[in-house]
Design a protein that fits this description.
The structure is a homodimer of 345-residue chains.
Chain A lengths: L6 H8 L3 H8 L7 H14 L5 H8 L4 E6 L5 H16 L3 E6 L4 H8 L10 E4 L6 H5 L7 E4 L9 E5 L1 H14 L5 E6 L6 H16 L9 E3 L5 H12 L7 E4 L2 H13 L9 E3 L6 H4 L6 E4 L1 H17 L8 E4 L1 E4 L2 H4 L8
Parallel strand pairs in A: 1-2, 1-3, 3-4, 4-5, 5-11, 6-7, 6-8, 8-9
Antiparallel strand pairs in A: 10-12
Helix pairs in contact in A: 1-2, 1-3, 5-13, 8-9, 10-11
Chain A binds a DNA duplex (30 and 30 nucleotides) through α2 and α4.
DNA sequence: CTACGATTTTGCAGCGCTGCAAAGACAGCA
DNA sequence: TGCTGTCTTTGCAGCGCTGCAAAATCGTAG
């Protein structure tokens, strides 16, 4: 395999210094049209491509941004990943993926002091079990953007939808259908379960707005937001003396698991139990029945996250922490509206 | 942000040359125990971490391997991705992900001459629409491992399950249930559809082995292996005068789409139509009904792929192309066995 | 005690690029 | 014509590491 073309090769051919070639390639100011053209021509003739590695070394950066997510095989995250990769590429960054498996220790290590600083220039973090303390202990010189439900303390950006409002809408949708006993699956009443707790808050607010009492025994906690968690929680709910006739699930996967249990007990969705999910993953559009859900604008979340992170990386003085609210909407499908909803997306 | 600790810093503290520190850090031979210990201590005291970038630059490699897949939000690929990342990290490589969207042009460009050679040291490629010509035109100096159904020409490794055999088993399972009209969804009778064609071959072989004729109008082509493709193809099949009573779907997503259509027509799975899928994605374990499927050993595929690629990268003389058959097995679930299968995983 | 081969350590150059500051070119003006 | 200020271009050093080959050290045989 032949040696790659370097800046120097181009410089020689164009009859200028390698520094000038660098200037042209990087579009720096103050290069005469004449030399620019000459260099440009040489670049093309030799098929020169900058060596990213060398550039990064010289600039003291790595050219990578890390995307830290709890699970990769969760559709929500893999859909997000796609958008992040696309956006990062536009800005000349590679995405380094890290799956934490929701392990708080692992999550903490990623943003703690020292860590593998050299491996990435910034982090887009979608924490699961990260507690407030980890954020306090973090290396504040590491550019950080957090996705999800955590409020920024001003030293990083935060992007997420309004979970409380979204959860309220979801619950109101169920109440609006005339359901009498609305359950919630996914609460996590402990320090690292902030995201879940906001959804529970929305759930309660909706009841309040409708002048309805929340039956606390219908709020079921789950360790994760998985199909299996949903399936088990639903089984528990159906075993109650007065089982619910509607369920707000804190993720579409939970909803799919719940539906699985309901149907395998010989009950019907939505006739016997209406189900609403959260995330709008593709699965929910083709499941049986299709799943009514809260759809966050994932593309916008990903794009904004990368944008902000890149800005943060290239700023000499750190920009103030931004609090970005991404839009969301309720998408009604069969699991609450029945077959009638079939035509909707 | 303070400067990072370098080799030289360690060298100074340990009272040796930086080259010796490098030797110790990299575990090279011929270092006295005495100096090794001394250096080791200095490394720990300063918290030295090698700069991967500089190392790679000096070694003329990038430290990245590319994983090229058609779609990332397809569960099969995101499950594979996880395993690949894990395996690559063990070998000190980063995974650079590229989604081709199945675009043949894009796929071709990735392994063609020149390409972005500097960005990655090797490629793990899961092609979709890649035709044989692209492989001929490829840059043979780029270490390559191909996943899927293509046979190696000796210049790269190939890892995949035996699709023909697996498809035969799947079809035989349906025939063994006593089904009379078995359909297949997913054929792609054109140059880039090799994978699909092997499945069709297995489908035919199974019929032959059972002394049954294949009804060609029951073999439906689909552009992709998606839910929507499965849903549409199934709709077409159900509109036939003699609709099938069993369907072999070339992916679990196709199967999920097909089931969706069947159920929304008021028919039952598996009573009216039995459905079998391919890939064993998690969705199929919690869908309603759960999906009988062919389960490839993804972990083994990923691990072997990385292993072979790393070997190929570090070999000065390219090793012969290996043809690896990963194991697969049939997992019977509700979509063919009915509720009775509930207990199986 | 010297010589020689084997082992361990070192110095230097260079991977390909960019930051920095200085040099050169050029135009305008006295 | 000489001088100044501005715009372009250049040279050099160095990012942190490793390849290479020479130098130093060591052990042992003569």
């Amino acid at each position: 395999m032949r040696r790659e073309v370097t800046l120097r090769d181009v410089a020689e051919l164009a009859g200028v210094s390698s520094r000038t070639v660098s200037n042209v390639v990087n579009g720096y100011a103050n290069v005469t049209e004449r030399t620019r053209v000459r260099v440009q021509r040489a670049v093309e003739e030799l098929g020169y491509r900058p060596n990213v590695l060398a550039r990064n070394l010289a600039q003291g950066r790595s050219g990578q941004i890390a995307l830290v997510v709890p699970y990769l095989d969760t559709p929500y995250f893999s859909e997000l990943l796609q958008s992040v990769i696309r956006a990062a590429r536009v800005s000349g960054y590679n995405v380094l993926i890290d799956q934490t498996d929701g392990d708080p220790e692992h999550e903490r290590a990623f943003i703690a002091h020292g860590s593998r600083r050299l491996l990435f220039d910034g982090v887009i973090f979608s924490p699961l079990g990260l507690d407030q303390q980890a954020l306090v202990d973090r290396d504040t010189s590491l550019p950080l953007v957090i996705l999800g439900e955590r409020i920024s303390d001003g030293t990083f950006d935060h992007i997420g939808i309004d979970d409380v409002a979204a959860s309220r809408e979801a619950t109101e949708h169920l109440l609006g259908l005339g359901r009498q006993r609305v359950a919630a699956i996914g609460d996590q009443p402990y320090a690292t379960g902030e995201a879940a707790q906001r959804r529970t808050r929305g759930f309660r607010e909706a009841h309040q707005a409708h002048g309805r009492a929340v039956r606390d025994d219908l709020i079921i906690g789950t360790p994760r937001f998985n199909r299996i968690d949903g399936a088990q929680a639903m089984a528990h709910l159906l075993d109650l003396e007065e089982p619910p006739d509607a369920v707000f699930c804190y993720s579409d996967l939970v909803a799919l698991g719940a539906i699985h249990t309901i149907v395998s007990r010989g009950l019907r969705v939505p006739e016997d139990v209406a189900v609403i999910g959260y995330d709008d993953i593709e699965d929910g559009r083709f499941s049986n029945p299709t799943v009514t859900t809260i759809s966050p604008d994932k593309e916008m979340i990903a794009t904004t996250a990368v944008e902000r992170l890149v800005l943060r990386i290239s700023s000499s003085t750190p920009p103030p922490g931004l609090e970005v609210r991404a839009p969301h909407r309720l998408i009604v499908r069969e699991s609450t509206a029945g077959r009638a909803a079939q035509s909707s997306s």
